[in-house]
Amino acid sequence: MRARMRQISISLLLLAAGAAAGFCLARHAPFQRPDVASRPLDGACSQYIDRALSGWFVDERGHQSLRLVPTACGRDIGPADTPYMFYEIVKTYGDPEQLGAAPSPGDRWKNVRGMINQLTCHLRIASNKPQWNLEPYRPWVGDEATEQAGCNPE
How many domains does the chain have? Predict the structure, then answer.
């Protein structure tokens, strides 16, 4: 019973985080797609992140960072698909034993809001970068300030 309640709690947390990501991206200027012909049918990607090339690493500052290499479809999503992309990221690279628990200093997911902010920034202004790094140590500063910082707020 406890395991089932925990699973439900985790699902609700992921749904809320994904909805927040979609809201952040949707409230910005109209989303420009570089190539209309390459849009996924009905806006759905079978996979958003290339799992073979993505994963956690320690950056030059000694901080945990999540390197993401989006698929071609993942680079071309609009606001409605952002929650699905974030769900895939958390499901694939999350720490299930820590999700839903109070954050600890070593928790990779201690700043979900900031990581969603970085993700939506990459989708808006840096979708063509070969890889995207989501860094939990970077603060949440809002969409405009994150974009001004090139998706790397200090």
Answer: 1
Question: Looking at the domain assignment, is residue 140 inside a domain?
Answer: yes
Opening angle at CA 76, ends 71 and 79, nearest 5: 120
How many Å apart are CA 13 and CA 123, to the nearest integer? 22
Assigned domain for 121 exists: yes
| Structural domain containing residue 139 | 2-29+45-148
Count of other CB atoms within 10 angstroms of residue 72 = 11
Question: Does 154 fall in a domain?
Answer: no
Element (H, E) at 110: none
Residue 47 DSSP code:
-
pTM, to two decimals: 0.69
Note the pLDDT tens digit of each residue in 7-59: 554 554 544 555 555 555 555 544 443 443 344 444 469 999 999 899 999 98
* Beta bridge partner(s), residue 57: 65
Instruction: Decide: helix, strand or coil at residue 60.
Output: coil
Using DSSP, state whether 57 is helix, strand or coil.
strand
Q: Does residue 36 lie in a domain region?
A: no
- Cite the DSSP H helix spans in the chain: 2-26, 72-75, 82-93, 112-125, 143-148
